[in-house]
Amino acid sequence: MKLDKNTYGTVALIYVLSAAAIVLLVCLVDQWWIKWPLVFVLLWLCGWQTFFHMVPDRKPVGSDHIVSSVSDGKVVLVEPCFEKVFLNRESIMISVYMDFWDIHANFWPLTGTVSFARYYPGKHLLAFKPKASEENEHFCTVIRNDEGKEVLFKQLAGGFARRIVCYAKPGLEVEAGRQCGIIKFGSRIDYYLPADAKVLVKVGEKVNAVSSIIAEI
Fold this sequence. Notes:
Structural class: alpha+beta
């Protein structure tokens, strides 16, 4: 694994602030039962944030007709819906929630060409709430395969997420399993699949970016 290139500054700031706090604790606090537990918490924070922003090296399972997971997380929703932002048709919506213990790097779910990409500012409701899909800050990307089938996936900011990174732009050719960006802190991925897609996950299931199959189209 390697550290995501978009997070060098964030991780460096956490290290610097933690190091400064540790120095102050060691120099100014005499009570060992206060000092050393706090030092441990700060070191744990540095380790956790390093892991959180890593890009895992996994064997991709996606293709031009197999939709792989964009992120680590847990499936919280699988239901039919009408997608009205771009596809304008009946679809299957799947939502995957990422908590604080999941790696937050994101990856292309399908091999094909980006046909739509747009950033939408918005609120920062907790990502597992139903309204978050429409009201939260998010980035929408549509990938079209060689057969003309399209998959829309939405990167949603959560209650603590304050930055969404996505490399999508119309006309870009992408390959399933390659990194497409990152979301910082708790967040969610929504998929909008063709209505005849074969869904291969269920609510409550844990999925891993790149190496878990979401559906076949």
